[in-house]
Amino acid sequence: MNKPELITIGYCQINQNNDENLIAIVDKTDSLKIQNIRKVWTANTITNKIEAVNNLNGINCFNEWFSE
Q1: CA-to-CA distance for 13 and 24, rounded, in angstroms?
Q2: Where are the alpha helices (DSSP H) in 1-68?
Q3: Pick from 62, 40, 38, 65: which is nearest to 53 by CA?
Q4: Are 23 and 9 in contact (CB under 8 A)?
Q5: pLDDT tens series, the chain, 68 aa
Q6: Which residues pair with residue 68 across a beta bridge?
Q7: Which residues are paired to 17 by β-bridges?
Q8: Alpha-carbon span 32 to 2, nearest angstrom
Q9: What does the alpha-carbon distance between residue 25 and residue 9 come to, in Å, rounded to a whole number?
Q10: E strand residue ranges, 2-61
Q11: Sheet containing 17-18: which strands, arranged edge to edge?
């Protein structure tokens, strides 16, 4: 990871639905909504494996460190 990147777990959505199983590498930001999502994986609770999410369309992440 590059220094301006962070890992966020449980703060992303797929098509406006919260998904606590998403893990993402994102760029640091001072805003609530993260503009640049680098990579996403999902924790598959059926297979107990971490799987890559290749299509980032519809994925939004929120900055868990955001404060006004």
Answers
A1: 11
A2: none
A3: 40
A4: yes
A5: 767 999 999 999 999 999 999 999 999 999 999 989 999 999 999 999 999 999 999 999 999 888 87
A6: none
A7: 14
A8: 21
A9: 9
A10: 5-9, 12-14, 17-18, 22-27, 37-44, 49-53, 59-61
A11: 17-18, 12-14, 59-61
Distance of alpha carbon 47 from alpha carbon 45, whole angstroms: 6
> Which residue reads 């919260």 in tokens?
18
Q: Which two tokens stand for residue 41?
A: 């994986």
pTM for this structure? 0.86
The pair of three-digit structure tokens given for residue 24, joined into one six-digit string: 């993402």
Residues in the chain, overall count: 68
